[in-house]
Specification:
Elements: H1 2-14, H2 30-58, H3 66-94, E1 97-98, H4 103-106, H5 117-146, H6 150-179, H7 184-195, E2 202-211, E3 214-223, H8 229-244, E4 249-258, E5 278-279
Parallel strand pairs: 1-5, 3-4
Antiparallel strand pairs: 2-3
Helix pairs in contact: 1-2, 1-5, 2-5, 2-6, 3-5, 5-6
């Protein structure tokens, strides 16, 4: 499945292109479309794997050249676990988590929800491929020494079902990304940053929308109507700089309205500690 990882990498790189006059919103969501295309390929491979596994159960045949088969599976396993390790490191990097040597293979699972779409697909796909190679090697050995030939077909079906799980999970997440999904964690984080500013009286509206791998922030805040333009401009610059410094935020639109004396923002305020870089042990 290494070609799929390369395909997704190219899509991720293209999504980082700067906006153009024809595409003023940039190419951020392109990565979601590329991942959806890759998922279709994975889905086809999953179907064919299950189909071949079922055929092998109904018509079991003895595999020849066990030594060559095991060598090929070992090489594939080593290649896939190398890619899995690199993907795990990228997951921790995107989640702003530091860890030891084994952290990419042990701690990346708990932070996978903060990874970018392409990274998440590569990690999950290589996780299935790594486990699949290991299961296939075990099945070959069992079939060779016990004559339980159907085990190879059973393992193929298990691998196919794991691939379908990846297809379903990643497809739904990227479909939401193409449409435009609110990042609730960052929304609460940005809301705290804005509310913590003593010059801001209230937040009337706030949107934090995922644009592929990036976040677009748009907000309407209320301030004292007696403030002069220079002060308002300073507030805008201060807030924009603070919000743009947050992970993944690339675009901020801040509008102002006079304070109406009525609290509109009802969200519970929490300190922005969850998005800071922290260390993890192996």
């Amino acid at each position: 499945m290494l070609p799929i990882s390369f395909f997704v990498f190219i899509g991720s790189a293209l999504s980082k292109k700067a906006p153009t006059p024809r595409f003023p919103n940039g190419f951020g969501r392109l990565v979601n479309l590329v991942v959806l295309g890759a998922i279709i390929i994975v889905g086809i491979l999953a179907y064919e794997t299950i189909k071949e596994g079922w055929h092998h159960i109904l018509h079991p045949t003895e595999s020849g050249g066990i030594t060559i088969v095991l060598i090929v599976l070992l090489i594939a396993f080593l290649l896939e676990i190398f890619v899995l390790y690199k993907a795990g490191k990228e997951v921790l990097h995107e989640a702003h988590v530091k860890g030891g040597f084994l952290a990419p293979l042990t701690k990346s699972f708990t932070h996978l929800n903060r990874a970018k779409p392409a990274t998440k697909l590569v990690f999950m796909e290589d996780l299935v491929a790594t486990a699949g190679n290991l299961l296939a090697a075990i099945a070959v050995i069992i079939a060779y020494y016990t004559d339980f030939l159907a085990i190879e077909g059973i393992v193929s079906i298990i691998i196919g079902l794991m691939m379908f799980y990846v297809v379903g999970k990643v497809f739904l997440e990227n479909a939401r990304g193409v449409i435009g999904e609110t990042d609730e964690q960052m929304l609460n984080h940005v809301a705290y940053l804005i509310s913590d500013n003593p010059k801001i009286k209230d937040i009337k509206t706030l949107e934090v929308v995922k644009e592929g791998e990036y976040l677009h922030v748009e907000t309407l805040v209320e301030i004292d109507h007696t403030l002069i333009f220079d002060k308002i401009d300073d507030i805008q610059d201060e807030l924009s700089k603070q919000i743009l410094s947050q992970p993944g935020v690339t675009d901020v639109v801040i509008s102002f309205d006079e304070d109406d004396g009525v609290k509109s923002w009802k969200h519970h305020k929490e300190p922005p500690t969850t998005l800071k870089t922290h260390d993890v042990k192996n």
